Amino acid sequence: MTSSPKRIAALALLERVRRHEMEDDSRALATLRGEIAELTDRGRALEGELHREAHAAGIESAAYLGDYIRAVRATLAGYEARISQITPEADRLETAVMERFREIKTFQSVRLAGLAANAAARDKLEADAQSEMVLLRWKRG
Q1: What stretch or stretches form a coiled coil here (predicted)?
Q2: What digits encode the pLDDT tens for the residues 73-91?
Q3: Under 8 Å between Cβ of 114 and 7
Q4: Start-to-end CA span in the chain (Å)
Q5: Structural domain 5-116, CATH architecture
Q6: Which of 64, 111, 117, 124 is the most buried (most CB within 10 A)?
């Protein structure tokens, strides 16, 4: 069975559209993953700084140490809240990217199978035409 040129073109168009959608989602996912990594790094750095400052505190800064620890913990909680807020969106985008990839591969497989069927049909027609010409020459000869 052959595929029409319109069907092949439609499949190629769907493949291209899905690829653009996947690339858009991939860029958004990369941005969110970058933000998560940055917040995680900032949190680790802040925890390290808190650990160093808490041990290096002298008598003169002891009065401020409690406020400093509370401020650092509040900042860390803010980082964790932001990470918790954007993680579901990142997961949704990751799922969307995988789904788009599957769709692209489906469209591509169907399109390539149609092109292969068209090529096979064309080859068969050429072989049949050549056989016909050989028979006609043999009958004349």
Answers
A1: 22-49
A2: 999 999 999 999 999 999 9
A3: yes
A4: 37
A5: Orthogonal Bundle (1.10)
A6: 111
